[in-house]
Write a structure and sequence with these properties.
With about 325 residues, the chain is an alpha/beta fold. The chain has helices at about 10-25, 35-40, 80-100, 105-125, 140-145, 150-155, 160-200, 220-225, 270-280, 300-315, and strands at about 1-5, 30, 45, 50-55, 60, 205, 210-215, 235-240, 245-250, 285, 290-295. Helices cover about 45% and strands about 15% of the residues. The longest helix has about 40 residues, at about 160-200. About 40% of the residues are buried. Residues about 315-320 have low confidence and may be disordered.
Length: about 325
């Protein structure tokens, strides 16, 4: 198996595309070239060759007549083209590798769609010049670009074959880096999927306003926001830190605004100072932003949770959702 992509400076879109194929075909060799005969001989041609034909492993987007785009209108570059055809298979392979879970075809495809929305489309947008970075002022495209040799490297190495060898090594480092990002994205989403049942079955306390999770590592916020409109606070048990945490519930993923804040008198207090205010001797801290607090015991955090709910009942503004 041979994967060909272009020589010279590399970008996040071609590195991501190669990373996807290397997950699926780990023994494949990679060459970087613009020699058409070598490109034609390869099993896959990525970001080079002037052809988009998935059936023959051709994934270029530079040809004049190319107009491939997502249903959203976001244009494809090589990252998106390869992810479109191999993303679900890559997700399934990474899920087994990182979680031991065998995903259904539909689940793998849905996760692939989500990763396209969160990551891949930005690599394409950056590559085709619609967005400068992917995303942010120093986003993933810029990070990958930084793996390329600079002029000081070229001067040090002598501008010849040594630079090409070094650049190839840097390209494969970028591929490995992006493979880690893929793996992290898949592991998180599979974990979130498996956590849904546990969060739904968690104990509800204090008249339906408090949720108790036995494992703080469970990703719970999305389920609570979408399915549990009466929950104002969540208690979770941090098994690694051996303490209990009291969380607020944010109103959306982009905001620290909460359905209800923790009491203002707790803000920024730690240990003895927080214990004095709450009467909980094993109280640990409350963040100045009043979105998280902790105690060393379950009884302690339950007492703090009741105090927080009492503060809400005494007049703190609460946002509710139906």
């Amino acid at each position: 198996m041979l994967i060909a992509t272009h020589g010279g400076k590399f970008h996040a879109d071609d590195a991501w595309a190669v990373a996807v194929l290397k997950v699926l075909f780990p023994d494949a060799d990679v060459i970087r070239t613009r020699e058409q005969a070598r490109i034609d001989a390869a099993d896959f041609a990525i970001d080079v060759g002037g052809v988009w034909d998935p059936a023959t492993g051709r994934f270029d987007h530079h040809q004049k007549e190319f107009n491939g785009a997502r249903a959203s209108g976001v244009p494809y570059a090589s990252a998106g083209l390869v992810w479109r055809d191999y993303g679900a298979r890559c997700v399934a392979a990474l899920a087994i590798r990182h979680t031991g879970e065998t995903l259904s075809d539909d689940t793998a495809q849905q996760i692939a769609y989500a990763i396209d929305v969160d990551i891949v489309q930005y690599l394409d947008l950056s590559d085709v010049g619609v967005a400068k970075n992917a995303p942010g002022s120093y986003g993933l495209s810029a990070v990958v670009s930084g793996f390329n040799p600079g002029w000081l490297d070229e001067q040090r190495l002598g501008y010849g074959e040594a630079v090409d060898v070094y650049r190839m090594g840097q390209f494969m480092r970028a591929v490995e880096f992006l493979t880690d990002i893929m793996g992290n994205a898949v592991r998180y989403r599979v974990g979130a999927m498996l956590a849904v049942t546990q969060v739904r079955q968690a104990e509800v306390l204090e008249g339906g306003k408090l949720l108790f999770l036995k494992n703080a590592a469970l990703p719970w916020s999305s389920i609570v926001r979408k399915e549990m409109p009466k929950i104002l606070f969540v208690i979770s048990h941090s098994l690694t830190e051996n303490r209990y945490i009291l969380h607020t519930v944010s109103v959306d993923t982009e905001s620290f605004d909460a359905r209800a804040d923790l009491p203002e008198t707790w803000a920024g207090l730690r240990e003895a100072d927080l214990a004095t205010v709450t009467g909980v001797q094993d109280a640990v801290f409350c963040h100045t932003g009043r979105f998280i607090a902790a105690a060393r015991s379950y009884d302690g955090i339950r007492t703090m949770a009741r105090q927080a709910l009492d503060a809400v009942e005494q007049g703190v503004t609460v946002t509710t959702y139906s």
